Every structure is written in structure tokens, then in C-alpha cells.
Amino acid sequence: MFIRIWSIVVKEFIQLIRDWWMPAFMLFGGMLELLMVGWATSRPMVNLPLMVLDQDRSAASRQVLVALENTGTFARHDHAGNMAAIREALDRGEINAAVVIPPGFGAELESPVGEPTLAILLNGAESIPARESLRAVEGAIREMGQEIALRRLGVSPNYLSNFVPSLRVWFNETLSEALYTTPAELGLMLEFTVLLFAALSFSRERELGTLEQLLVMPLSSLEIIVGKAIPVVLIGFFDFLLLLGMTHVAFGVPVRGSLTLLLVLAFGYVLVELGKGMVISVRAHTQHQAFLVVLMVGMVDFMFTGYAAPVESMPRVMQLLANFIPAYHWLTILRGILLKGAGLDVLWPHVLALAGLGAVIGSFRCITCGGPWIEVCGECYEDFDQLCFIE
Q1: What are the pLDDT digits (tens) for 329-382?
Q2: What are the distances in angstroms from CA 375 to CA 170, 222, 241, 270, 316?
Q3: Exposure pattern of 285-297 as b/e (b: 16+ CB <10 Å)?
């Protein structure tokens, strides 16, 4: 039995060597995407273009400009002659924000009962730069407002210098977005790698016309499945080690928990995604069809990983649905071990859910013979298209 399985494993690796572009693309393409995403999210957002319409031209308005420059978010500010120039710049996408200082701003600022106002215009078509611009402008204006309020009360601006709030950020001390996005990208790349290699295993044989040769050999269906699964598991686990090393070395993502526990659970997750990929493989008739199904499944899983939006902010129905997505539990486990140093005493619900989902995937039945999808009866051998039309 083991010799027969080993012969299937050798055959699969020979096929991968011949089609070397596929494993190279999946492994190094995933690493390149992780590198670009981590680099883009680890850098602060700076050099945003800003336009200012100063209708007051006073010392107070120049103070506003200096405060905006000191935020470091804006690379430069262009002076607009009128509102039409600002509107045109926003329409062309040349600026992310504009500040309009109305006439009499300085006088209102000096008056004990004055209410100075500023108009802030944001380019909402680019929401992320607009949100960062708003945060920078609000921070600068808030600091100026505190100084104005203290001055009107006759209190020195240094009055609050002795008040230092006690702030402690857990798990991500620098609030680096890369520590959140790179583990998510790691999980997604691992899922796509395992799913795609597994989904192409049988669909490639069927499309190339070599499936019948396997079926007439003295091999049981279980031996064929295991022989094809071992290379996928090895490649997937090797890919995980590569991506984990990159996130740690290149982006400083810590491994605060048990590395042994992480590797064991990663191996279990690879087996779960392997089951999904094998089901797709025996269901798809061509490699193109298998690839499209993997893409569809991956996009659905992407919505529940918390990468685009936290699952906790979704409607209750969507939160319940996320419990049936293996990637959701895997990302929770991955972030828990890497960032929080959590162990099984905390992560056991997600580990149990992942194991349960893997058991459900492995229990799909064949409509033709009623047996498990990893076995094929004589009737299914006669027409392999009927293999694993799962209920």
C-alpha cells in the first residue's frame, strides 16, 4: 500500500516539475503580494496634497497653515484664488483635502466671544486618504482650540503640561496596520495555495485524459487520494513557513505564542483546506472550472476573515455565517498566537470549530454510490463524471 501511494506521490512531483510555473507562481507570487501589501500598510500616510483658500491673510490664518504643515501628513499646500479652483482640483483628483479660511477669522479668534470657523473639503472618492486628511486636520485644529480656550480663560497654555494621560496599547504598541494586515494576507495566500493545488489535482487528470490510466491501475481510490494529497500538504506547509518567516523578518510581526502550537494548527488547517480543494477537484470537469470555483470560494472566505471589515461590525446573521468559514477561525487562531501569545485555553473554541468543519467536509457523500467522497465503487468507476456529485 505504501509503495503504491509513494508511486503516486512521485508522479505528482514529476508533474509539478514539468509544470514548474504553477508552483513557482503560487509560492513566489504569494510572497511578492504579501511583501507589497505589508510594505504599503506598514508606512504612514504622508505627502497628501492639500489646497488652502486663505481669505483672511492674518497671523491667525498663517498659524493654521503652520499647524497643518507640522502634522507631517501633507507634503505641500497650494494656495487657491477662489472656490472654483478648489472645485476643479477636487474634480480632477489633484488634492485630497482643502481648507477654506473665511474673512475675519483672526478677529473672531481674538474676540472673547468669537466663534471662528474653518471649512474643510475632502475628496470622498478616495476614502482612505480623505479619512487620514480629516484626522490630521482635526488633530491640528483641536490643539489650537485648546490653546484658544485656555487663553480666553486667562490660563497659560502650559497649564495642562503636567497632565499626562496613562495610555497603554496591548498587542500592537505602535498601532501598526501591518501587524493586522500581514497575518490576514498570510492566511489568504495559504488558503489560495492549498485550494488551487488540491482543486487542480483530479481536474488536471481528467482534462489531460490520464484519469483512465489511474483507474485501471491496481490502486484503490483511497490510495489515489492520499497519493495526490501528500504533495499538496507538503507544498502548502512549506508555503506557510515561507510566509511566516517573511512576516516576522520583513515586517516585525512577533510570534508571542507557542511556535509548536502554531505549526500543529497550521498543519490541521492545511488538511481542512485540502478537503475543500479535493471536493472541488472531483466536482470540476476542467482546470479552468476548478480555478473559477476556487476564486469564488476564496472571495467568499475573504469577506469573513476580517481583512476588509471586522466580522464584529457585520450584521448578526453574517457573524453567525462566519462560524462556518474555516478561514475565519484560522485567522483568529493565527492572530491570537502571533500577536496575543494565546494558547489552547483561549483558542480552543476556534480549534474545535475548525476540526468540526474538517470532519463535515470529509463526510460528504457520493450520490451515485452513497459512499464517502474519498472512495469510489465499481459503479462510479464506470462513469467517473458521477464521482462525488456531493449532496
Answers
A1: 998 899 889 888 888 988 999 999 999 998 888 776 554 444 444 444 444 444
A2: 49, 6, 32, 21, 38
A3: eebeebbebbeeb
75 assigned to some structural domain? yes
Cα(first)–Cα(last) distance of the chain, in Å? Answer: 30
Tell me: do 31 and 61 sit in the same domain.
no
Secondary structure string (H, E, C) spanning 14-68: HHHHHCCHHHHHHHHHHHHHHHHHHHHHHCCCCCEEEEEEECCCCHHHHHHHHHH
Whether 233 and 341 share a structural domain: yes
Residue 162: Cβ within 10 Å count: 6
- Domain boundary among the residues 130, 162, 194 is at 162
Picking from 162, 195, 220, the residue at the C-terminal end of a domain is 162
Residues 220 and 290 in one domain: yes
- Judge residue 332's burial from the number of C-beta atoms within 10 Å of its C-beta, 0-12 exposed, 13-18 middle, 19 or more buried: buried
Cβ–Cβ < 8 Å for 304, 327: yes
The string of DSSP letters for 161-173 reads GG-------SS-T
Residue 307: strand, helix, or coil? coil
pLDDT in tens, 142-181: 777 777 666 666 665 565 555 556 667 777 776 677 777 7
d(CA 334, CA 247): 12
> What's the one-letter identity of residue 1?
M
Give yes or no for a contact between 294 and 280, defined as CB atoms under 8 angstroms apart: yes
Q: 86, 92, 72, 180: which is closest to 133 by C-alpha?
A: 72
- Extract the C-alpha cell encoding 115: 466663534
Give one word for 57, left, alpha or beta, with left for phi > 0 and alpha for psi -120 to 50: left
157 touches 151 (CB < 8 A):
yes
Q: Domain range spanning residue 78?
A: 46-162
What pLDDT is recorded for position 382?
Answer: 42
3-state helix, strand, coil in the chain (%, to 5): 65, 5, 25
Cβ pair 240, 266 in contact under 8 A: yes
Cα distance between residue 278 and residue 291, in whole Å: 12
